[in-house]
Amino acid sequence: MMQNVTDAVHGLTVPEFLVLLIAILASAKLLGELAERIHQPAVLGELLAGVILGTSVLGVLDPQIEVIHLLAEVGVILLLFQIGLETNLGRLLQVGVASMAVAAVGVALPFVGGVVVARALGLEMMAAVVAGAALTATSVGITARVLSDLGRLQDEESQIVLGAAVIDDIIGLVILAVISQVVAGSELTIGSVVTTTLIAFGFVAVVLLAGRFVVPPVFGLLSRVGSEDTLATMAVALAFTVCWLADLSGSALIIGAFAAGLTLAPTRHAKVIEHGVLRLGMFFVPIFFVSVGAAVDMRTFADPQVLIVGGSLIVVAIIGKVAAGFAPWWFKGNKLVVGVGMMPRGEVGLIFAQMGLRTGALTSGLFSAITMMVLVTTFLAPPLLRWLFPPRPGRRADAELPGAVARITTQA
Fold first, then answer.
1. All structural domains of the chain with their residue ranges
2. Which backbone phi and psi does 6 adopt, to 5 degrees?
3. Residue 343: helix, strand or coil by DSSP?
4. CATH: 1.20.1530.20, 3.40.50.150, 1.10.10.10, 3.90.1150.10. Which one for 14-411?
5. Which of 170, 121, 147 is nearest to 338 (CA)?
6. What pLDDT score does 5 carry?
7. Which tens digit of pLDDT belongs to each residue from 184-226?
8. Which of these, 321, 274, 327, 71, lies nearest to 172 by C-alpha position?
């Protein structure tokens, strides 16, 4: 019989580890389902599950446990790999000048505003930069899900929102890569920012170029000699390999995951691979969101400074994205819908916050303040969109498409 193997660092036995996984997965699923029943994204339920399990409430989950941290990191990689898989690069490049304008303003205004406000409130420069970076994100999955449920994906406003949201995420990944380098000890200079940006874009370009010649024949061969499970497994192995190469090149792991997804997205095997990755992500991705929620120390909300910082970031977050909706002044549609559609930070904003906490750039209080901003903007967007953009009768078929982000690739 298997002996109780102990984690040398945290003293977890195998049965204790299994009980912890049961608590994480069961609570994430149940509260995620509950969130969807009240017309909110499942990610909010998963975050709430983490808060409840965390050290400040039940004390069941310590997100600093090494094995939980590693599983959560795999969850982030799979999440970005999935987004890359579901992104049609050709259509992304064709979404138009309006999406580019919304994306540019939607990154610049919140970032600058966040840094200025954070500094004015007494935060150190690095903490202010992380806070500003977290404000730049737009959750593609959450926005796409709401617009799909409304039967509005083919509306011009939705085209602009979703195209800009994807561009936002690409820019956000580059910002995250820059910040990761800085918090690792690199000096924050114009040269370092330009270098890291060039490395990030250059790495993606090299991966896409190499993948165009290597991936189709390799996966074509695998499809003939192996099963669908083999294709999905080898695709995940490819994603991990590209992540490792990204780290070696000085870029971020998630840049590699996203690039790997983009490489496989145009192939005829993409849907099969996506299905396998979604199944794998059902285990790993909730662990990431629950661990993020568990890192929120509810006791910090008793600190007026946390509430002031969090409230200020919420105001900047809302104003910055809503203003971005008015950037394409020539657009004759509902600009407010575009701005509100850019509001939810969702999983991307949480990745920024978690990175800042893990590297020491954020204190637990500042992490809680940023998480509060993410939660509020993510909660506000769905009901506001429903109010501004009423459901269109007869267009509910959009909601039946598989995957939250996949909806944008078939419509954008």
1. 14-411
2. -110, 135
3. coil
4. 1.20.1530.20
5. 147
6. 36
7. 666 666 776 777 777 777 888 888 888 888 888 888 888 777 6
8. 321
pLDDT in tens, 260-291: 888 888 888 888 888 888 888 889 988 988 88
Rounded-to-integer distance, Cα 203 and Cα 79, Å: 19
Give the count of beta carbons closer than 10 Å to the beta carbon of residue 352. Answer: 25
Q: Among 125-134, 159-168, 232-241, 292-301, which range has the highest average pLDDT?
A: 232-241
Distance between CA atoms of residues 74 and 45, nearest Å: 20
Structure tokens at 46: 């998963």
SS3 of 46-96: the string is: HHHHHHHHCCCCCCCCCCCCHHHHHHHHHHHHHHHHHHHHCCCHHHHCCCC
Contact, 108 vs 315, CB < 8 A?
no
Whether the pTM exceeds 0.85: the reply is no
Using alpha carbons only, how large is the chain's radius of gyration in Å? Answer: 21
Residue-level pLDDT at 396: 43
What are the Cα distances from residue 214, in Å, to 211, 268, 347? 5, 14, 31
C-alpha–C-alpha distance, residues 134 and 137, integer Å? 6
pLDDT of residue 127: 84
Is the Cβ–Cβ distance between 32 and 274 less than 8 Å?
Answer: no
